[in-house]
Amino acid sequence: MKRFDVIEHTADTGVVAYGADLKEAFANLAWAMSSLMADVEAVEERVCREVEVKAGDCETLAVSWLNELLFLLDVEGLLFRRFEVAELTDTGLKARCYGEKLNPRRHNLKGGIKAATYHMLRVTREDDGHSIRVIFDV
Fold it and tell me: pLDDT digit string (tens) for 62-101?
């Protein structure tokens, strides 16, 4: 199963992330966002950060998850390449994120993302797994 597809949307960009289960879809969603910003294959796993987010529902949780990762990039300069979702409910997520401090010379920056948005947001269960669609403000 592929991790994600890119969605072109007027001046913004989005993704549809896939997973055999919802945990995998959330992990692939984070990986997709990281890969839109930088060459994640060049990111080393030097730091492990525990991330916990809560929200009112599963869709809002997806946006909160991504925006927390963007916050860690903006404030601490952390870029992640691997995401292990340990716990997931409709209103909460706990994950371990592996990566390192952003190094523009090694990580081949592609473009910035300001935020994950609620526009066209959708979490879907399908016959072969789950998908999550998110549009990013770039």
Answer: 999 999 999 999 999 999 999 999 999 999 999 999 999 9
Question: What domains can be seen in the chain, in order of their start residue?
Answer: 4-137 (3.55.10.10)
Residue 49, token pair as written in the block: 């950060």
Q: Structure pTM?
A: 0.95
Asked whether the beta carbons of 116 and 134 are under 8 A apart, the reply is yes
Residue 42 DSSP class? G
**Amino acid of residue 28:** N
Tokens (6 digits) for 55: 């929200």
Pairing of strands 92-101, 122-126: unpaired
- CA-wise closest residue to 41 among 90, 9, 3, 89: 3
Nearest to 125 by CA among 4, 19, 12: 19
Q: What angle do CA 96, 101, 107 make, to 5 degrees?
A: 105
Q: Considering only CA atoms, which of 90, 104, 98, 110 is closest in space to residue 37?
A: 110
User: What's the DSSP call for residue 2?
Assistant: -
Contact 107, 42 (CB under 8 A): yes
Spatial separation of the C-alpha atoms in residues 70 and 39, rounded to whole Å: 16
